[in-house]
Specification:
alpha/beta; binds adenosine-5'-diphosphate; monoatomic cation transmembrane transporter activity; Potassium transporter; 5-stranded antiparallel beta sheet; Trk_Ktr_HKT_K-transport
């Protein structure tokens, strides 16, 4: 194991997917879960999978977790186990800890015990789906508080004009980052890019502006 590997603890739906994706991306992964069935199921998929209680700092040390600088904690439902696991990783000197939280309070505690990155997969996906079902947005991601990127069909009035002519940044406060023609890959938007019928736009800007742009009739 090298410092470039990642420890993934709690191989449920979230952690299991993180571990599989990291493996596909070519990273060395040490997976840990207390559930023997899950460990068995993932033993063909991941390079190293160990059954252990991750709240036990000594057990983690013996497995070799101190060899790693990065860890992802995917335990969510059992908040106590999630917090104690992050604490154990902190005590063992793992620098980059990513942890899943199921509520804002849970997230705050995880930060206090040493998680450098806290993610909220369920509430983030909830926000995303809310945007997709209510507006004309085809996809939506809030990258940071108050700043978003979205995929949107251009309203008819934009068709046949260049981005310079449209002046969307001045008129609507959004920037067109890329344009995807039907059946082709997305291309970086240029000032003389003409919007055509059937195009999909990737736009970014303050969340409110992106939402308003998506709600246009
Ligand atoms: P998800 O919703 O992503 O499936 P869960 O919180 O339900 O997340 O599952 C997390 C995983 O973490 C489960 O596979 C469970 O066996 C594992 N887990 C929970 N507590 C511990 C622990 N103390 N040590 C190791 N693994 C744990």
């Amino acid at each position: 194991m090298t410092k470039s590997g990642v420890v993934v603890i709690g191989l449920g739906r979230f952690g299991g997917q993180v571990a599989e994706s990291l493996t596909e991306l070519g990273h060395e992964v040490l997976g840990i879960d207390e559930n023997a069935e899950i460990v068995q199921k993932l033993s063909d998929v991941l390079t190293h999978v160990v059954q252990a209680d991750s709240t036990d700092e000594e057990a983690l040390r013996q497995i070799g977790v101190t060899e790693f600088n990065r860890a992802v904690v995917g335990i969510g439902t059992d908040i106590e186990a999630s917090v104690l696991t992050v604490l154990a990783l902190t005590e063992l000197g793992v620098g980059e800890i990513w942890a899943k939280a199921i509520s804002a309070k849970h997230g705050r505690i995880l930060e206090r015990v040493g998680a450098r990155h806290v993610v909220f997969p369920e509430s983030d996906m909830g926000v995303r789906v809310a945007h997709l079902v209510t507006g004309q947005l085809l996809d939506f991601i809030e990258l940071d508080d108050g700043y978003a990127i979205a995929k949107v069909c251009p309203p008819d009035e934009l068709i046949g004009r260049t981005l310079t002519q449209l002046g969307l940044r001045t008129r609507h406060g959004v920037t067109v980052v890329a344009v995807k023609r039907a059946g082709k890959e997305a291309e970086t938007a240029l000032p003389d890019t003409v919007i055509e019928r059937g195009d999909t736009l990737i736009v970014s800007g303050p969340t409110k502006k992106v939402e308003q742009f998506g709600e246009r009739p």
